[in-house]
Amino acid sequence: MRTTLVKTLIELAEKEEKIFVITPDLGFSVWEEFERRFPERFLNVGIAEANAIGIATGLSLCGKIVYVYSIIPFVTMRPFEQIRIELAYMKTNVRIVGVGAGVTYGAQGATHHAIEDIAIMRALPNMLIFSPCDPWEVEQGVRASLNYEGPIYFRLGKKGEPVITPVGNSFSFGRANVIRRGRDVYILFTGNIADEVVKLYSLLESKGISAEVVSMHTLKPFDYEYLDKILKTGNPVFTIEEHSIIGGLGSIVAEYIAEAGYKVRFKRFGIPDQYAHWVGSQKYIRERFGLLAEKMFGKICEYLK
Amino acid sequence: MNYLDLSKIVQDIRRNILYMNNRGRASHTGSALSIVELLVVLYFKILRIDPENPYKSNRDRFILSKAHASAALYAVLAKRGFFSEEWLKKFHVDGGMLPGHLDKTSAPGIEVSAGSLGHGLSIGIGMALAGKLDKSDYKVYVLCGDGEINEGSIWEGILFAGAKKLDNLTLIIDYNKWQAYGRTNEVINLEPLSLKLKSFNWYPVEIDGHSFEEIEDALNLKVSQPKAIIAHTIKGKGISFMEDRLEWHYKSPSEEELKKALEELE
Ligand SMILES: Cc1ncc(C[n+]2csc(CCOP(=O)(O)OP(=O)(O)O)c2C)c(N)n1
Hints:
- The complex is a heterodimer.
- By secondary structure, chain A is of the alpha/beta class.
- Chain A contains 12 helices and 12 strands.
- Helix content of chain B is 39%, strand content 11%.
- Chain B has a single domain, classed as Rossmann fold (3-Layer(aba) Sandwich), CATH 3.40.50.970.
- By secondary structure, chain B is of the alpha/beta class.
- Chains A and B meet through loops of A and loops of B.
């Protein structure tokens, strides 16, 4: 995902001189090409995230479109109040680009995991939250970000994710992206858990369950229209995310179901309300949290009985 | 313990760091290698600690604020007897015990969970204040990276501790001249660092951060202000092909690199 982001930004920056990139000292072997081509529009401000957000705000108030890149907790939670006032309240054109969604950073430990970011960013008025599931969505999102007025939070995985969006899909912020059509159950997911979701789809298919798999890449503003449409069918709905079950995709859907009064079977998959004190890779920690496809498949089958 | 014994320990620690990062495919090899002498002098000559009683209330506190160098701390804690050296095999692997960044619940001797830079000094200030309140004579030591002191929170702490004359607090800056995306003084020039600290009412000392004698003398120096030890070090110290190379902030040694590196430590 991050390779696509940088590639797309380089392409756009050739024509759009307002594009500016700030890193608080992250992105070795990621940004070198951008830096080489546009040395005046790339700035390492040092390990100083609060200062980075402030500088980005100042630049954006003078007409620039600024992308601030770091690992998610450092670029969202560390300078959160700066983000609240300078980005959300003032509605500036700063794009926060966070890498390492969920437990991407695995054995690096919980300081590097990002499990609360959607919840806190979602509480900010004016903040667009974009959580793409594949490089296609990343590219579309980066392009769309050029003409969007207001702050955006990009929640990215790392690198090497495959494209799973079918050819011919169209994109806009705030619109669900249907990855697979189906008729029996709905699986709404967001972001970097895509690989498990794809596996889950096949497992369900092998059991004769036809799932509609949908990437909710924009968590805010959310595609309530699509959600309402699928809830009307009365079919079971499952949400999957590599984020706390508090405040993320599952919460968004639950809130809507509760208020709209739908009687629908619904279950959230996500990270329970705890930090990972285990040591291991992303896959290992997903397993401990019950987020591997096989585990979710079992739970869904049980649930549908 | 004499310096010959210490240098044997240092070699062992370096070997263990290399093994750990090879086995766990962990990054930050250079960051761990640059602080080995500092940690060894602290843990074997300076800190008032008891591995049998790791939570004794009047123990000295050491905080590794640049927690990405955790491998060095784990190796030193194991060597000092806080836990078995077998645990080092459980660093940064599936089903492991010791994570890449610090989790205070993972092993005895780890004072704080850390990994996001710029937290350690303020926590250390709190511990130093508590020591004064409780009339306890323990000392607090915080080790930061030179890049880490870009963080505003560090300077808030420096300003505060200087103003409050916290003479039971020592900040050690691992001045290895590199951070994650460039040379420290090219990203943001820290110089004149010593003068900055002095003007914030700290007592700065500049030393060679690989010299036992200079480290020990600086740590033993009695002053009536908070002390800042600016330790000039080499990132990747001890392994020729890792020294002063940014890539070793990220790389873990392959089998072949491990072999070559271990030969250099013979
Ligand atoms: C708040 C925060 N921002 C960014 C990072 C990512 N990061 C990890 S190590 C590092 C560079 C640290 O440089 P320095 O303090 O000089 O330590 P060295 O590795 O050189 O010893 C960075 C930017 C982080 N861990 N925490």
